[in-house]
Design brief:
Keywords: Lyase, Metal-binding. The structure is a single chain. This protein is an alpha/beta fold. The protein has a single domain (19-285), classed as Phosphoenolpyruvate-binding domains (TIM Barrel, Alpha-Beta Barrel), CATH 3.20.20. The chain has 13 helices and 8 strands. An 8-stranded parallel barrel has the order 1-2-3-4-5-6-7-8, surrounded by 9 helices. The longest helix has 19 residues, at 28-46. It is globular, with a radius of gyration of 21 Å.
Length: 286
């Protein structure tokens, strides 16, 4: 006779079914999410090398594939990709299931974009095109609950398990665990890198070398000005005690940049797929 309840199934197969996994009162699922957030933030603080994937297509499956492929974090790209609020929630859910940190790159520093991503359960926020410390202070304020910021508290939001998690300690824990990052992608931003990196609450800065290359010239990645900007940003991040990252399209380039002082490297999942596909197809047709 088939078991009609999980309790009956657990009784028939002792030691093989953990009933707490399915128990709505169990904190296990919630704790794994908190652990992922805490571990990622601790890795950044300790300067450990972390590798990430920018995901510019609205695909939970790409998030899972990146996690199972060994990436330490994913960036759900809501700036250059078509990902909307609905798809973003599913991508965050996939990241949590695969136990990988999920940052959301918002289009700009604005309450609507930031709050939507955080209430959905994002590990953290990445803001592009930052040019000054004032923008960072605005971002931090939108990300953190009072008294550190002005984020509105909605315990019925997904990030708080739809009211299952509530109370002042929940807000304090969220403030502790949240990861906040910015991208410096222009000459103006590089000139203010020190002030940007010194803003309290900021956890990391990414050097947006692609947009910087367009800002300083013709998209060339080997110019002296680009090198100078990278050194300024790395130095500012090191002085402030925060992590510093950059894009790296190959293993060799990633290793080189990690050795040069960056502690975060990332690659776009779509370019990675296209590159692998090209190698495969050209190898067949060679």
């Amino acid at each position: 006779m088939p078991a009609t309840t999980l309790e009956e199934a657990a009784g028939r197969f002792p030691g093989r079914i953990n009933i707490n996994v399915f128990n709505k009162e169990s904190p296990m699922a919630s704790e794994s999410i908190h652990q992922t957030r805490a571990d990622f933030k601790a890795a950044l603080k300790a300067g450990k090398p972390v590798v990430g994937a920018f995901i510019s297509v609205p695909s939970p499956e790409f998030v899972e594939a990146a996690a199972y492929g060994g990436f330490d974090f994913v960036v759900i790209d809501a700036e250059h990709g078509p990902t909307g609020p609905g798809e973003m929630v599913h991508m965050i859910r996939a990241a949590q299931a695969a136990e990988v940190a999920a940052l959301v790159r918002v289009p700009l520093v604005a309450k609507d974009y930031v709050l939507r991503a955080l209430d959905a359960g994002a590990t953290g926020i990445l803001a592009p095109h930052i040019c000054g410390a004032g923008e960072v202070r605005e971002l931090v304020s939108e990300c953190l609950y009072p008294p550190e910021g002005r984020r509105g508290a909605a315990f019925y939001a997904r990030t708080h398990r739809f009211t299952r998690d509530s109370g002042w300690d929940v807000l304090e824990r969220s403030n502790r665990e949240l990861t906040i990052g910015v991208m410096i992608e222009s000459r103006e931003g590089a000139q203010h890198a020190r002030d940007i990196c010194q803003v309290p609450g900021l956890d990391f800065v990414l050097y947006g070398i692609h947009d910087m290359s367009v800002d300083v010239g013709k998209g060339e990645h080997n110019s002296a000005e680009l090198e100078k900007a990278g050194l300024e940003i790395k130095s500012a991040a090191k002085e402030a005690g925060i992590a510093c990252g950059i894009a790296a399209s190959t293993v060799e380039l990633a290793r080189k940049r990690l050795e040069s002082g960056f502690s975060m490297v990332a690659i776009g999942i779509v370019p990675l797929l296209v590159s692998a596909a090209r190698r495969y197809t050209t190898g067949i047709h060679a």
